[in-house]
């Protein structure tokens, strides 16, 4: 089953108009929520960010947010999802194609679930990343459906045999194509501040809290390409990638190609959090 507006229908039954503004303009926002053991992880934080993204593009939920929360939980139950994700998006709806906001359209909400497992192998061995100039717009804090910049960067990384693209604006490292980037230098954790240049990841915030609990000082400050390439440890975070070690960036090997000590501690803390009842 999928959720379409306020109804549960089969995927075949779920129809969206060809002039939906999400389809034509990417005029909408989305969230990806992790489900561990049948439970939605950090649901409140995801819904809070979803609302923030909606406000940023002047969209309003067409029903109460409590209804949306109930609908998402029901969707997980209906689909017997144990481990996977919920994808949810809202668009400005269907209207005759014109750039300006149409009058009187109803936003279209759609959500579906997908089973996925944790990327255990990569979490143990780390991934390689490829550097890409950040050619995206200046509102990366909005979780917008417009992902073309991210898509092109990720493909460039894949074409270079890497699993993630790390964006930089000139010398300054921003974030990954679908992750936030962290480095460890001299016993401190550094990550780009949550401004308009990055998406403030739910996993990013979670990891910052875990680091504080572990006594690892956190500095939310941007760092340079050189600081990235000569860091003691590098990892990226996201809802599906969790705390993912980066062991190679372009031609530079990081942490002798192994999962670093702090990265491992943060991975352990994260794993405890998602497996606790
Ligand atoms: N940055 C970008 C550009 C992303 O697409 C994502 C994943 N949605 C993230 C960061 C990580 O966010 P989260 O931890 O909320 O999944």
TrEMBL record:
Q: What class of enzyme is it?
A: transferase
* Cofactor(s) needed by this chain: pyridoxal 5'-phosphate
> Is Metal-binding one of the keywords UniProt gives this record?
no
Q: Which reaction does it catalyse?
A: D-alanine + 2-oxoglutarate = D-glutamate + pyruvate
Q: Please indicate if the UniProt record lists Transferase as a keyword.
A: yes
Name the PROSITE patterns for this protein. AA_TRANSFER_CLASS_4
Q: Name one GO biological process term.
A: D-amino acid metabolic process
One GO cellular component term noted in the UniProt record for this chain: cytosol
Q: Write out the GO MF terms.
A: D-alanine-2-oxoglutarate aminotransferase activity; pyridoxal phosphate binding
Q: Which UniProt keywords apply?
A: Aminotransferase, Pyridoxal phosphate, Transferase
Q: Which family does it belong to?
A: Belongs to the class-IV pyridoxal-phosphate-dependent aminotransferase family.
- Subunit annotation: Homodimer.
Could you tell me what this protein is called? D-alanine aminotransferase
């Amino acid at each position: 089953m999928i959720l379409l507006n306020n109804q549960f229908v089969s995927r075949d039954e779920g129809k969206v108009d060809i002039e939906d503004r999400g389809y034509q303009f990417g005029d909408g926002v989305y969230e990806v929520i992790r489900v561990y053991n049948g439970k939605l992880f950090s649901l409140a934080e995801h819904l809070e960010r979803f609302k923030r993204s909606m406000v940023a593009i002047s969209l309003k939920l067409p029903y109460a947010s409590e209804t949306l929360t109930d609908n998402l939980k029901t969707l997980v139950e209906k689909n017997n999802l144990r481990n996977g994700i919920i994808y949810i998006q809202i668009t400005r709806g269907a209207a005759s194609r014109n750039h300006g906001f149409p009058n009187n359209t109803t936003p279209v909400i759609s959500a579906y679930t997908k089973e996925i497992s944790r990327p255990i192998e990569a979490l143990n061995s780390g991934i390689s990343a490829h550097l890409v100039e950040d050619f995206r717009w200046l509102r990366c804090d909005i979780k917008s459906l417009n992902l073309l910049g991210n898509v092109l960067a990720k493909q460039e990384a894949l074409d270079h045999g890497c699993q993630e693209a790390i964006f930089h604006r000139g010398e300054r490292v921003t974030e990954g194509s679908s992750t936030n980037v962290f480095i460890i230098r001299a016993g401190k954790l550094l990550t780009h501040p949550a401004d308009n240049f990055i998406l403030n990841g739910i996993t990013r915030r979670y990891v910052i809290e875990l680091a504080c609990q572990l006594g690892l000082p956190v500095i939310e400050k941007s760092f340079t390409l050189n600081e990235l390439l000569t860091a003691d440890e590098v990892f990226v975070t996201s809802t599906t990638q969790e705390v993912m070690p980066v062991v190679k960036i372009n031609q530079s090997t990081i942490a002798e190609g192994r999962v670093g000590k702090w990265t491992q501690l943060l991975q352990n803390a994260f794993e405890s959090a998602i497996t606790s009842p």
